[in-house]
Amino acid sequence: MLLNNINLPSSVTIKEVGPRDGLQNENQFIQTEDKIQWINMLSETGLSYIEITSFVNPKWIPQLADALQVAKSINRYKNVTYAALVPNERGLEGALEANVDEVAVFMSASESHNLKNINKSINDTFPILKPVIQEALAAGKTVRGYVSTVFGCPYEGAVSADAVLTVADELFTLGIQELSLGDTIGVANPKQVEEVLLEVLSRFPKERLAMHFHNTRGTALANVLVALNLGISNFDSALGGLGGCPYAPGASGNLATDDLHYMLENMGIKTGINRDQLLNAALFIEGKIGKLLPSHTMQTERGKNCT
């Protein structure tokens, strides 16, 4: 298909998940005040959505043990949605105390990953999420659902579209307003993305879907292009390509916000994000994690003085 014939949206919402999905896999603890400052810098970039933390048990993700303090201490910008991942009712208590704007619940499309990630079967997960979703909605919050391992599982391999649809059906029935489809281990290819999305779009409107790609094998932006052509205009990403899943071996490297932003803006698709401020925020967190960010954009920035 010729690129000129692709039906691209005029604008896209980039949902920054770096402070949660990006940092959760970092071994070196990032100081609370640095997390707060980084989120404040992200708020100044023009991003309209930032997932700031996760209210999970600290023993599972020690990096985010300061969730409540972070959420209570950041500067709130009126045009930014501040979201947090919530696994259960106890986590919801913290999220509501912190007054986040959106609650995100999560589960997997594959049984093995769900057991490893949540310690419950898929069928046993729904009763846990139901009161979380209902209570969040009753509190005036929007609710988002994540489905992991949509395109492949580290334990089971291929995952059927029917398995994805079963989970998606139940989550929408429970009341979520948006569903993010995750390529948790970065195995998806453009043809597969098209096949799965056509199945999902036959059941649910494109406005209620988002894509969460990992760049583990270098296919994330190609997969974004396929999703764009099918009408998807919401994409999760982490600045600099931070992160991965602690329960999916080898799942390093979220799609980098800076790489996604570069591609979209140069294709004439508006994001509302200021590139200079975005790169400043990337440089800041790079200095705090103590290692170089893997995104192509950051590598290019470092190489500008090369001859």
Number of domains: 1
Biggest β-sheet: strands ordered side by side in the sheet: 1-8-7-6-5-4-3-2
Helix content: 40-55%
Output mean pLDDT.
93
The main β sheet shows up as: 8 strands, parallel
**Per the principal axes of the C-alpha atoms, what is the gross shape?**
globular
Q: Report the strand count.
A: 8
Q: Indicate the proportion of strand residues.
A: 5-15%
Determine the structural class based on helices, strands and strand pairing: alpha/beta
Number of helices, counting only DSSP H or I runs of 4 residues or more: 12
CATH superfamily: Aldolase class I
Q: Please tell me the CATH architecture by its name.
A: Alpha-Beta Barrel
Q: Would you tell me which CATH topology applies? A: TIM Barrel
State the CATH class. Alpha Beta
The helix/strand order is EHHEHEHEHHEHEHEHEHHH
Low-confidence stretches: none
Q: Rounded to an integer, what's the Rg over CA atoms? A: 18 Å
The N- and C-terminal alpha carbons lie at a distance of 37 Å
Protein name: Hydroxymethylglutaryl-CoA lyase
GO molecular function, one term: metal ion binding
Domain Pyruvate carboxyltransferase: 12-279
Organism: Schinkia azotoformans LMG 9581
Which features does this protein show?
Hydroxymethylglutaryl-CoA lyase; EC 4.1.3.4; 307 residues; TIM Barrel; alpha/beta; 41% helix; 14% strand; eight-stranded parallel beta sheet; 8 strands; metal ion binding; 12 helices; Aldolase_TIM
